[in-house]
C-alpha cells in the first residue's frame, strides 16, 4: 500500500521523532511504499497565501506534489505533540495547504443553504494519528474536551472520507521512564502493523 507519514515536530531528538522512525520502519518491514515527510526538516512552507484559497488556484510545485501524494495515499499516519490542544503551526499549515478542496473534499451539489456538509475525496482506507502529551488523558477529556480528537476525527478525516480512523496519545511524556518509552514504541509498532499488515509477497 502507498502510505503517507506526516511528522510535525521541530526536534530530531523528540519522542515524536522516535514514534515516526518506528512507524516508518514497521511499514517498510511490512512491504509498504512509504512517503515520509518530516515537515520541519524539509522546511515545508506552511503559510497559506490568499491566492491559493480559490478551488482552482494555480499551486506551486511543492504543494502540487504533496496534494498528489495525499490524494493517492491508501493509508495516512499523522504524528505530532499536543501543543495547546492543537497541532504545531507547521502541521496546521500543511493541513491548510494540502487538504484542499478538490483534493481532500468537495461540497455537495448546490450547497445553497450553506449546510457545509463535505464530501470526502481521500481514498485512504485507514488513518492513524499518534500524539504525545503531558496531560493525563482523563483530564484532557474532562477539562479540555480532547480537542485533538475533534480536530482530526470529526472535523478532518471523517469529513474527508477516511474509511477507518484510530488515534493514540502517549503520555505523560515529561515524567516517563526510558522503559515506559520503549514500551510505547513497541505499541506504535503493534498499532502500525495492525492497521497496515504485511502485504503478500
Ligand atoms: C508550545 C507548547 C505547547 C504545549 N501545550 C501543551 C498542552 O496544551 N497540553 C499538554 O499536555 N502538553 C503541552 N505541551 C507539552 C508537549 O505536549 C510535550 O512536550 C510533548 O508531547 C512531549 O513529546 P516530545 O518529547 O516528542 O516533544 C506543550 C509544549 C509546547 C512546546
Describe the structure.
With 201 residues, the chain is α/β, with parallel strands linked by helices. The protein has one domain: Flavodoxin domain (Rossmann fold, 3-Layer(aba) Sandwich). It contains six helices and seven strands, in the order βαβαβαβββααβα. A five-stranded parallel β-sheet has the order 2-1-3-6-7, with helices on both faces. A two-stranded antiparallel sheet has the order 4-5. Helix 1 (15-29) packs parallel to helix 6. The longest helix is centred in the last third of the chain and has 18 residues, at 178-195. Bound molecules: flavin mononucleotide (FMN). Flavin mononucleotide is lined by residues 9, 14-16, 81-85, 132-135, 173.
Looking at CATH, the homologous superfamily is Flavodoxin domain
> What percent of residues are in strands?
15-25%
Main β-sheet, spatial strand arrangement: 2-1-3-6-7
Radius of gyration: 17 Å
The number of helical segments is 6
Distance between the termini: 12 Å
Count of spatially separate domains: 1
- Bulk shape: globular
- Total beta strands: 7
The overall average pLDDT, rounded, is 95
| Residues in helix, % | 25-40%
Explain briefly what this protein structure is:
This protein has 201 residues and is α/β, with parallel strands linked by helices. The protein is built from six helices and seven strands.
